[in-house]
Amino acid sequence: MNVLAFDTCLGAVSAAVRWKSAAGEWLLRDRFELRSSGHAERLMPMIAEVMDEAGLVFSDLDRLAVTVGPGTFTGVRAGVAAARALALASGLPVVGASSLAVMAHHAREQLGKAPTDMLAVAVDARRGMVYFQVFDPTQETTGHPSLVAPRDVAALFGTGAAVVVGSGARAVADAAATAGGRLEVYLQDLQPRTRSLALLAERLAPSEPLRPLYLRPPDVKPQVDQSLGRALPT
Predict the structure, then answer these.
(1) What is the greatest pairwise CA distance in the chain?
(2) Which CATH class name applies to 100-186?
(3) Which ranges in the chain are annotated with CATH 3.30.420.40?
(4) What is the pLDDT of residues 148-173, one digit of tens each?
């Protein structure tokens, strides 16, 4: 299955294409850039670059894949909007994956022989909270992505050992330690990588409709039943 995958959820922009060559060999091209802003502006040029490198056009693809969150409000919105637009223009089905599942897949590849019986992904969501999800050794989730305080998830691990990755990993490990748990912290700079998303995409069910996973409302909300008074001429 030939797949175009992309991500803008957190502190990076990435895109990848996985396809089968005429010789029957599976190939993959990907690009990844750390960014604090400009995700939407960089995404489409990056998609064009990986498609050109692969020598593919959209009619060669079987599906699109995108991370749907959690992440920053603007980042999640940019990726989902791009996926919807490309799906509409190309007629391709689109699958969505949580940013945390993509990070977990990449973390297992990176950790190699590190103890990974239970793997938790914890991403700093600010205001003392983390985006959090736990995965078993087969990459299956043991719960849904959630927005929680580190102390509230530390009890999940009891006194057993586990691995936690991501920018919120240290906060979760410290909270677990106060409760007698022992979590090993790795990959605190981890970001979603679309190489992993492209590999996961074949086993995902198409999303119709594709919805973003925000977990928290945007910081800026429109005013309701409020208006600025208009100055009257004197």
Answers:
(1) 81
(2) alpha beta
(3) 3-98+191-203, 100-186
(4) 999 998 777 766 668 999 999 999 99
